[in-house]
Amino acid sequence: MVSGRNKIAVLPPDVQAQIAAGEVIERPASVVKELVENALDAGARSIDVRLAGGGLERLTVRDDGEGMTAADALLAFARHATSKLGRAEELAGVTTLGFRGDALPSIAAVARVQVVTRRAGEAAASVVEADAAGARAAGVAGAPAGTSVEVEDLFGATPARRKFLRTPATELAHVVDALTRLAAASAAVGFRLEHEGREVLALPPVRDERQRLGQLLGRERAGSMVAVEVERGGLALRAFLAPPRETVGSARLVWTYVGLGGAYRWTRDRLLLRAVLDGYESLLMHGRYPVAVLFLRFPPGEVDVNVHPAKLEVRFRHPAAVHQLLVPALRTRLAAALRPEPAGAAGVGSVAESVPSYDDMPHDGSGRALEDGLAAAASPTLWSAAPGGFASLRFIGQIFDGYLVCEGDRRVVLIDQHAAHERVAFERLREEHARGAVARDPLLVPEAITLPAAHAAALAEHGEVLAAAGLEGEPFGDGTFLLRTVPRLLRGRDAGAVVRAVARELAEEGASAAAERTADAALATLACHSVVRVGERLDPAEVRALLAAMDGVDVAAHCPHGRPVAVTLERTRIEALFKR
User: Where are the domains of the chain?
Assistant: First the structure.
């Protein structure tokens, strides 16, 4: 028997505190987030953030909120101290941003902290100082009503943690991101950020979310975003969606917020991101992400906000119902905004969302769909290439054997004939698929198609989706698919090439892809292989038929893979090129 000291021991309190702090405080931006959320919970209408050294040397957050008594300011540094609830039963009803109550003790575990706070009506402010050794009263001071928290030498006592942080410029960028996301949900609050004495952000209070987005994203971009409002079963959505042409390479500008009471909490949630992407389905190119801001309000008990130490993630009681509410609302609004206006239309009217009923969501009796259309000036149409419809354009000619030159009202319109025909075919296929009536032809001799193992597995997994799209068949040995029918629109095309393309698309979607998304991916590939391509000549009659067909589908601005169908060149721009 080997003797020696025990292997299991209780860590010292200061080490426990530093480990716990690591769950909440990762970098200066984490500190800013926690302190600003506390300021908002305190009713602040003005929040001032000042940094030195990217926030590593010094970080100060001042607010004009409610302030604390001397006793509360000291108690706020006790772990798990909170003013937000007193019993476990109240967890489901927490409506504030800074619920967890771990912010100040977590910050003090890895930095030196001074709090100066005064309630309105009190003669002087109370001062509390804290660090890894604990908190202590430090007298009184003259200060305006509200609270100021100064944090110095972040991670100074834990060099192993500090070495993983980046340059001051990078840490400042993270603070800007955090403050931007917080400000987007608090339009009535003024925010200011200063670094090394230089003003970085200045966001005066504004009337509503659109004006705040104008401050954050630019007035032109914010002005081009369409609004969505819908409510069902106590769950309410308010969203702002940028045109599909304005995409970025990551999800950094998809902002999703969850609210239970008066405050909205920014959250990093895969379900909500997936719902946004599904709402933009067939409008985005592969690997591109939209610019979208969603505010989602839940009734009490329908979302758990206490599942992540830094409050970045949430858990929904009915995730499927959330997805089913969001996706149709976003799709319907985008489709309406991308549809060419009838000749003479003045702008976007009111569009009532078509939202199904959700039996698995608790209903409060309201069950109403709000009109999401705002006045044209507030919620613009995203499509402007052919305001009077594509059929109203005058066909001039075809260039480079693939692009149609048309003339419209004081503009030249260039149309990608493949993208346009692809969108028409996709919309018709999707309509047939929804009715369960995709026209198909049986092959006299089934075609054996050889595929990579992963692609063959994707076809086997999604056999029902393929059959519904007109591609009936079954696996036939390792890496082979036996095709028995093809969609009628593919008559005369290379069926093997189509199946291989569909298999590749399904494999990229992944095994967990929703059935509807999988079906759309397959239909988009079918549409792509069934239509005219760049390099094929079209006669004027074929062009006119294509233009008329584009007016007959709900969405004609993009092909189902997200590429634009048309671009415009205004007459004024052409005249400027010739100095007229």
Answer: 13-205, 210-338, 384-580
The Cβ-side half-sphere exposure at 533, using a 13 Å CA radius, reads 5
Q: Positive or negative CA dihedral for 369, 370, 372, 373?
A: positive
Q: Which CATH class is domain 384-580?
A: alpha beta
- Per DSSP, which regions of 225-344 are E strands? 226-232, 235-241, 254-259, 264-267, 292-297, 303-304, 315-316
Q: Are 418 and 531 in contact (CB under 8 A)?
A: yes
Above pLDDT 70, what percent of the chain?
Answer: 80
CA–CA gap between residue 463 and residue 483 (Å, rounded): 11
Q: What is the pLDDT of residue 116?
A: 97
Lookup: tokens for 579? 């100095």
Sort strands 254-259 and 58-63 into parallel, antiparallel or unpaired.
Answer: unpaired
Q: DSSP letters along 82-132, please?
A: -SS-SSGGGGGG---SSTT--HHHHHHTTSEEEEEEE-TT-SSEEEEEEET
pLDDT, tens digit, 9 for 90 and up, residues 448-468: 999 998 888 888 888 888 888
**R_g of the chain computed on alpha carbons:** 29
pLDDT attached to residue 344: 42
- Confirm or reject CATH 3.30.565.10 for domain 13-205, answering yes or no: yes
Cα separation, 274 vs 322, whole angstroms: 11
Q: What angle do the packed helices 495-509 and 515-530 form, to 10 degrees?
A: 150
Rounded-to-integer distance, Cα 9 and Cα 6, Å: 7
> Would you state the pLDDT for residue 81?
60
pTM over 0.90: no
Write out the two tokens for 253.
């500008």
**Which pLDDT belongs to residue 329?**
94
Looking at the domain covering 210-338, what would its CATH class be?
Answer: alpha beta
Confirm if 156 and 108 have CB atoms less than 8 A apart: no
Cα–Cα distances in Å, from 528 out to 417, 429, 498, 502?
A: 12, 11, 9, 10
- The owner of tokens 């999707």 is 430
Spatial contact of 401 and 536, defined as CB atoms under 8 Å apart: yes
Give per-residue pLDDT as tens, 528-579: 888 887 778 899 999 999 999 988 887 777 888 888 888 889 999 999 999 8
